Amino acid sequence: MKRKIYDKLLKWKKNNKGKVALLIEGARRIGKSYIAEEFAKNEYETYLLIDFSKANQQIKELFDQYVEHLDDLFLRLSAYYSKPLLPRLSPDDEARTLIIFDEVQFCPKARAAIKHLVLDHRFDYIETGSLVSIKKNVEGILIPSEERRLDMYPMDFEEFLWANGADTLMPMITSCFQKKTPMEALHRKALDFIRKYLIVGGMPRPVLEFINSNDFESSDEAKRDILNLYRNDIHKYAGPMAPRVLSIFDELPGQLQRHDRVFRLSALEDDARMREYQDAFLWLSEARIVNCAYNSTAPNIGLRLNEDRTTVKCYMGDTGLLLSHAFDEKGIVSNELYKKILFDKLEVNLGMLVENLVAQMLKCSGYNLFFYNKWSEEKDDRMEIDFLIPKPTITSRHNISPIEVKSSTRYTLASLRKCMAKFERYLSTPYVLHEQDLREEDGILYLPLYMTPLL
User: Fold this and answer.
1) In terms of C-beta density within 10 A (0-12 exposed, 13-18 middle, 19 or more buried), how is residue 307 classed?
2) pLDDT in tens, 68-111
């Protein structure tokens, strides 16, 4: 399946000429290994893939024993994997060989060796990994400055359209967004696809199962395999904090079902404090299992400067996984339930799924997630804004766009209007993301959910 990250790999290869290695970081089962190997097959004369999750201890020890004798290191790797390693013909040429360190978190010494390997300049290097930043996987090594990180996320909405053979739909959506004109006849088609994207999600295997079978249950089975993998990872790699990490993971659907989506630690244990759970949230975030959003107490130039980390919303990294995680009473979500969601016939509030989907799409677009939540005894002073995003270029005023997410056709905008009145000098375009077509009214731009990636 076509992924946008491939173009970023091409740009890295062309512009850097081996001066830095590339680390592709993302959640488990997101397609890191697949895209790295496809890139190697297509763009190099030869390649060597070392999967450190399977490599024996002797291979791992080579990066400790021979890092100062690279000729010997390359000779042994070439012989063991029966792969020729073709060096650059000259320092200014593009590399002929790509070496992939797959699941590099299982061999920290190989990651530390990147400094010497890059300076040697014979080959190009790509690392892939999950949990590469947790303490256990960086102890005792110096993180190389010759390593450039590239985050990989679940398939975005446009990639999902490509996978479903709807290549021409996103250009039309983009054109309407740029001209601020409604989609009209194509609105229903685009809305149908965004609902399928909400149900299936963007993890490659569930998407492939859905495309091959046109069946939601096959996709659900693949999602449950991933959820089980995440549980096993928590038990295996979270160490002493595993019980707290798992309690947050299990509580996610219930907390997102709350009206304000703010995670209440009291649901986990009495008298729980954020300082006791902060590392657990960080572990889930580093594992890319969740996307955390923090309260910014003032929507002005620096959202991070006003960040309140004691007030957090914790979204699932993939909405399809959240759906399977939430509706798991019988171990599998039935096609009947999925069809009710698809045709908007489910008798429950889908607000948590729609808001999680927006968080996922904003994160894929490169935004850090912030919201605004002000509690007051006085009802007129209360405000809840789902998301705040900055303009690409910071100016002296009008930098932040407030976003309200609506999952039904009937809603009010009391908080958004209060925010517009109170913080007018700080605010750029206010958005409402909903299931209806595009319109502009009273200074607010109303966008269909499928236009979220264009913000």
Assistant:
1) middle
2) 999 999 999 999 999 999 999 998 899 999 999 999 999 999 99
The model's pTM is: 0.92
Q: Which of 145, 184, 139, 189 is nearest to 164 (CA)?
A: 189
Per-residue pLDDT reduced to its tens digit, 258-275: 888 999 998 888 888 888
Closest Cα to residue 98, out of 171, 177, 166, 42? Answer: 42
Residue type, 168: T
pLDDT at position 182, please?
Answer: 98
The Cα 159–Cα 154 span in angstroms is 9
